[in-house]
Amino acid sequence: MQRRNGLFWGIFLLTLGVLFLARRVGWLDVNWHSLVNLWPLLLILAGVNIILERRSNPAAFVTTVMLAVAVPTTLFGFFSHNRDRDRDGFHMRWNHDDDDDDDRDYSHNDSDNNDDDDNESDYQAERDRRNADKNVPHSNTFSESMDANTREAVLKLAGGAGKFVISDPTTELIKADTKQTLGMYSMTVDRNPTTHTPTIELKPSKEEQRIDFKDGDYENRVDVHLNTTPVWTMDVALGAGQGNLDLSHYAVKSLKIGAGAADLDLKLGAKADQADVKLDVGAASVTVHVPKEVGCRIKKDGALNVEHLDDFTNVGGGEFVSPGYDASTKKMTIRYNGGISSFRVVRY
Q1: Range from 57-61, 73-77, 94-98, 293-297 carrying the lowest mean pLDDT
Q2: Which of 22, 60, 76, 295 gives 52 a disulfide partner, CB atoms 3.0 to 4.6 angstroms apart?
Q3: What is the pLDDT of residues 279-290, one digit of tens each?
Q4: Domain limits of the chain?
Q5: What distances in angstroms separate CA 300 from CA 116, 182, 280, 307, one per listed residue?
């Protein structure tokens, strides 16, 4: 490990020195701003490197070299971009000063200039007001009444970056509270005319929103409460952020979760006799809580993830089973497909 750290810093300093030298003598003609925008790749590369290091994989040598080149290149692009921007700003101020030197030639337009200044002030005030309104979170509440004949229900929940919570039950079929700075959520409920099974779809609007975090803090939070009577089928699609999904109160026969760069905490219950859970995640940290009275089989796919399955027996082929699985009256299957992720299953 110590030798590899020396390799990293040696290549790091060498790369940084070459870049500064090449810029100074005019060898480089690169759009540095485009390189700065690729900084998330450094996180992915660093995560791969850490995982390979822990597994003593020889490929860690390659990722160390790549990281030692990529990090100083991105930093150099960032500083170079800022320097170019500051230099352009200096030229703008210099030209403005030149205009001020010629004020004596345009003194007869002072009244017009004052009018322009007033208009500019009004415009700036209106823009500031709109920006302030834009940064205020908007809250909405959605609900659907419970039909006594409802035996099964389907929930489709989608969201981008934010925090998503499923928690305590409600007497309604569903009650959802949303709070977001940009965009809006919508909820639709379609009932099958034959089975009367409701399909609930809760998702954000399709309007493209461009978030500029320099303007302030942005919030996107969804809190969902469900009825405990129906047997639920759930399809949850999350982007980046945090998911706290406590489903221990509900009978869930099928659950599918897709998530990107997320921190996911999932608590499952023992209400259903047979449950099928599918987790498809990217660069995520996933913790799943499973009741001890439920026999659990895990089928795991994904080479670049770190698993913590201490209470499970490895039966080969990427499959793990809980103690007493065959004798359990209630069973659960968890299919896990992860990218660069941490996967933990805790029995409670």
Answers
A1: 94-98
A2: 60
A3: 998 877 899 999
A4: 2-101, 138-209+217-347
A5: 66, 37, 10, 9
In angstroms, the CA 10 to CA 65 distance is 10
Distance from C-alpha of 170 to C-alpha of 144, rounded to nearest angstrom: 11
Closest CA relative to residue 255, chosen from 269, 234, 231: 234
Each residue of 229-254: pLDDT tens digit? 999 999 999 887 899 999 999 999 99
DSSP string, 85-150: HHHHHHHHHHHHHHHHHTGGGGGGGHHHHHHHHHHHHHHHHHHHHHHHHHTS-EEEEEEEPPPTT-
Please state, in angstroms and rounded to a whole number, the distance separating the CA atoms of residues 28 and 25: 8
User: So what's the pLDDT on residue 138?
Assistant: 83
The full length of the chain comes to 348
* Residue 336 CB-density burial (10 A; 0-12 exposed, 13-18 middle, 19+ buried): buried
Average pLDDT in the chain: 78
**340 contacts 48 by C-beta, under 8 angstroms:** yes
pLDDT above 80: residue 187:
yes
DSSP codes, 149-201: T--EEEEEEE-SSEEEEE-S--SSSEEEEEEESSS-EEEEEEE-TTT--EEEE
Classified as helix, coil or strand, 223 is strand
Amino acid 93: pLDDT: 39
Top pLDDT among 306 and 319 is at 319
